[in-house]
Specification:
This protein is α+β, with helices and mostly antiparallel strands. The chain contains six helices and nine strands; from the N terminus they run E-H-E-E-E-E-H-E-E-E-E-H-H-H-H. It has a five-stranded antiparallel beta sheet with strand order 5-4-3-6-7. It is extended and about 75 Å long. It is an enzyme of class 6 (ligase). It comes from human gut metagenome.
Length: 219
C-alpha cells in the first residue's frame, strides 16, 4: 500500500532488449501501457437540492449531500445539470446516492441506491428563485430559464463574468463585493462599474478607504 493516492499506473516490459525489439510509435513506446483505475465511489445522503440562476437565466439544480471524503478531499455538493438528468436518475430528496469524482476532480451523482419511504420525485421550480418571474422551458431545450432581464441573480452572474480574468480582468471586484453593490443598487449594468462612487464604497462594511483606493486603481 502506498502512503499517497494514485489514479493509475504505467505497466512496462521489464527487459531492455525486448523494449528495443518492440520499439515505439511517433508518440508512444510500444512496450508500455497506461492503466487507469476505476474512480472511487461513495454512498451519502441527499439533503436538499439548491437551484441557482446563471448569467443567461438558466436554472441549474445542485445536490447538497452529507459531506463525504472521496479521492483525497471532502465534498458536499455536485451539479444535477437539469430537469432531464434528475428524472433519468429518479432523484428524490432524502435518497441514498452514489457519488464519485469525474476525472478524479469534479463531484458527480452516479445513481440512486435507495429511496426513503414515500419518496417524492423532485420537480424543478416553476418560478425563478431570485426574482419570482415565471421559469420557462422552451421546446427542444433541456434548460429551464428565467427570461426576466432585470433578474438580480442574472445581473450578479453577468457582472462576475464581466470582471473575471477571462473578460475585463478588473482587480478587486470579487463575488462578495459585487453582491453587495448589486444589493445596494450601486450597480445595475456593467457600465455602472466605471462610474462607481468610491466614497460610498469606502463606507461599506469590511471595506475602508484603502480598499476603495485599491479598487479604483484596479479599474
Amino acid at each position: 500500500t502506498l502512503p499517497f493516492d494514485i489514479d493509475g499506473a504505467v505497466i512496462k516490459v521489464n527487459d531492455f532488449e525486448k523494449r528495443r525489439i518492440l520499439g515505439s510509435t511517433a508518440k508512444f513506446p510500444k512496450w508500455a501501457i497506461a492503466f487507469k483505475y476505476p474512480p472511487e465511489e461513495k454512498e451519502t445522503k441527499l439533503l436538499s437540492i439548491e437551484v441557482n440562476v446563471g448569467r443567461t437565466g438558466v436554472l441549474t439544480p445542485t445536490a447538497v449531500f452529507s459531506p463525504v471524503l472521496i479521492a483525497g478531499s471532502t465534498v458536499s455538493r455536485a451539479t444535477l445539470h437539469n430537469e432531464d438528468f434528475i428524472k433519468e436518475k429518479g432523484i428524490c430528496i432524502g435518497d441514498t446516492i452514489i457519488i464519485r469524482k469525474a476525472g478524479d476532480v469534479i463531484p458527480e451523482v452516479v445513481s440512486v441506491k435507495e429511496h426513503i419511504p414515500d419518496a417524492v420525485p423532485y420537480r424543478m421550480p416553476e418560478i425563478c428563485p431570485s426574482c419570482g418571474a415565471k421559469a420557462v422551458r422552451e421546446d427542444g431545450e433541456a434548460a429551464i430559464r428565467c427570461n426576466n432581464p432585470d433578474c438580480p441573480a442574472q445581473l450578479l452572474r453577468m457582472l462576475i463574468h464581466f470582471c473575471s480574468r477571462d473578460a475585463m480582468d478588473i482587480e478587486g471586484l470579487g463575488d462578495a463585493l459585487l453582491n453587495k453593490l448589486v444589493e445596494q443598487n450601486m450597480i445595475k449594468t456593467a457600465a455602472d462599474i466605471y462610474s462607481l462612487d468610491f466614497g460610498k464604497i469606502a463606507e461599506m462594511d469590511k471595506m475602508g478607504k484603502k480598499s476603495a483606493e485599491n479598487l479604483k486603481k484596479g479599474h
